[in-house]
Design a protein that fits this description.
The chain contains 10 helices and 6 strands, in the order E-H-E-H-H-E-H-H-E-H-H-E-H-E-H-H. It is α/β, with parallel strands linked by helices and 210 residues long. A 6-stranded parallel beta sheet has the order 3-2-1-4-5-6, sandwiched between helices.
């Protein structure tokens, strides 16, 4: 099967994450999209990200449970070590050799991917779907970056066009702290979970996660 891997802190998961997974599924004829919450992301050192792991996993599960081709993958949250994308994708390819994996990432990550641990290994060994939104000035800029990375590392990076949905987990947490919940761009089940567990209330939000 063709499997898209949608990673993220998901703190909380929001409609933009789901939309990106849906567009990847449709545009690249994927069989499934696996949502993989980060466990110990190396670029986000706040202890809150680790402390709230089970909440993030549960919210992700609730957000995708009604979509038959979305799956929850807890490989990274089950591990105690820091999570690196190249190791995760190596594990998936070795464990599920019958599948072909597509690594889904946002436009901002495409322009910083060379800063990732063993980025050359990741680019060479996994098909990458890079989403293009209006926050990047032109598609030409995206195409130039894709051509540069593909040529330099022998990669297979493809452009994934998606509409702009101006939403971030950071902004959602701020709204909840300010008592705004009714119009949040998150699935209803996630909103109920946040309300029932009193998440993100009265905390200082310096995580800047998405």
């Amino acid at each position: 099967m063709k499997i898209g891997i949608m990673g993220g802190t998901f703190d909380p998961i929001h409609n933009g994450h789901l939309m990106l997974g849906e567009y990847a599924y449709q545009r690249f004829d994927l069989d499934e999209v696996w949502f993989m919450p980060n466990g110990h992301p190396p670029h986000k050192d706040s202890p809150d990200v680790v402390k709230d792991t089970q909440d993030r996993v549960r919210m992700t599960a609730l957000a995708i449970e009604d979509v038959p081709y979305f799956r929850l993958c807890t490989y990274e949250t089950d591990r105690k070590e820091k999570s690196y994308s190249f190791r995760t994708m190596d594990y998936l390819k070795k464990t599920f050799p019958e599948h072909r994996f597509y690594f889904i990432l946002g436009a901002d990550s495409l322009f910083t991917i060379e800063e990732w641990a063993h980025a050359d290994h990741l680019i060479k060994n996994v098909t990458i779907l890079a989403s293009y939104r209006d926050d990047i000035d032109t598609s030409e800029e995206m195409n130039r970056q894709i051509s540069y990375l593909n040529e330099k590392y022998g990669g297979d990076i493809r452009l994934l066009r998606t509409p702009l949905l101006p939403v971030s987990s950071h902004e959602i947490r701020e709204q909840i702290q300010n008592g705004i919940q009714g119009e949040l761009p998150i699935p209803r089940k996630v909103r109920v979970y946040i309300q029932e567990h009193q998440l993100y209330r009265g905390e200082t939000d310096d995580r800047n996660t998405d």
